[in-house]
Amino acid sequence: MTAQVPVRRHPSPTATDQRATLMTDPGFGQAFTDHMASARYSPEEGWHGLEIVPREPILLDPAASVFHYAQEVFEGLKAYALDDGTAGLFRPDANARRMVRSAERLAMPPVPEALFLDAVRALAAVERDWIPTGEGSLYLRPFAVATEAFLGVRPAQAYRFGVIACTVGSYFRGGKPGISLWATTQYTRAAPGGTGEAKCGGNYATSLLAQREAVAKGCDQALFLDAVQRRFVEELSGMNVMFVHADGRLRTPPLTGTILPGITRDSLLTLAREEGLDVAEEPYALGDWLADARSGALAEAFACGTAAVITPILEVHTEADRVLVGGGKPGPVAARLRERLSGIQRGRAPDPHGWCERLDG
Ligand SMILES: *Cc1c(COP(=O)(O)O)cnc(C)c1O
């Protein structure tokens, strides 16, 4: 179970009324809480010194390897207010495991799963008052960075682990029913043998130019294709994608090393199988997607991830084309899966897999 994590309280935490104002319209990734979890790694002591401390800047030497060679991994998970007045974390053990795998890919010493879990549980408990009721949640952002001051190229010997938190509302502002995608053929996100299946900042850095291009084209998000043939749909910069065919089949690209193994993706595949849907982890060529959307053979498409949960994809733009998906309207399968998933996350539906971990008691 959870170890006792030392807590050093913030001397002047956000006042109750100020917090209430911040939580009214928190946006995404702005309304930060007062504390953070912190631990260190050294070759002699391994990972050690986990504590909850006031949220404050991290002092690093300008030669710290993270600034130069980008040894960094992170996670994202949410704490939800449950309908019975308690609060819960959604599948934190899956995030702990994934961060181990990401760290291994970046030649970093993995944060032990138990330490990761102690950190997120302790921080969420200390920041209990920042977990909103209603549609919002408390987003937890664990991360690890190389801190050794050394410019030689090899894995660093010193690291910091931290968890920060922010109250979040909806990821896509303005309550739009769905998003439009720009299918970039110029840029790729991940190549075979690369870091596509690791959750690391470097993957995001390489996606930003495509994302900027998407916005310039009037779209919400960039869609990445496979780096070899530039044909098959992979994912967005921070979300997986799923398709619902008119015959009811649910399809998502397979995890072949270039796609981030989303926990939302995994949860939805499980729920869909339980609902009796025919589920396939199969490549889908962009050309087929566009043709199927036009002919009606494809009924729905949606993006999924912790931040945005399930978001219908209503339009796809390419250099040559612009196609509506599902007639440009959100579909029933995405809505039903979203309802089922949030029912479990909010503790108002049966949870046969034990995905929702209660925070208090
Ligand atoms: C985090 C992330 C996802 C979604 O993963 P979840 O565990 O569902 O939040 C998908 N794609 C990328 C590239 C990501 O970084």
Architecture overview:
The structure is a single chain. With 361 residues, the protein is an alpha+beta fold. Helices cover 26% and strands 28% of the residues. The strands form 2 sheets. Strands 1, 2, 3, 4, 5, 6, 7, 8 and 18 form a 9-stranded antiparallel β-sheet that branches. Strands 9, 10, 11, 12, 13, 14, 15, 16 and 17 form a 9-stranded mixed β-sheet that branches. The longest helix is centred in the middle third of the chain and has 16 residues, at 201-216. The chain is globular. The site of pyridoxal-5'-phosphate (PLP) has 13 residues, from α6.
Order of helices and strands: HEEEHEEEHHEEEHEEEEHEHEEEHE
Number of helices: 8
Rg for CA atoms: 21 Å
Low-pLDDT segments: none
Fraction of residues in helix: 25-40%
User: Which band does the percent of strand residues land in?
Assistant: 25-35%
- Oligomeric nature of the chains: single chain
Give me the count of strands. Answer: 18
Mean pLDDT: 95
Helix-strand makeup class: alpha+beta
Instruction: Describe the sheet with the most strands.
Output: 9 strands, antiparallel
What best-fitting shape do the alpha-carbon axes yield?
A: globular
Question: How widely separated are the two ends?
Answer: 12 Å
- Molecules bound to protein: pyridoxal-5'-phosphate
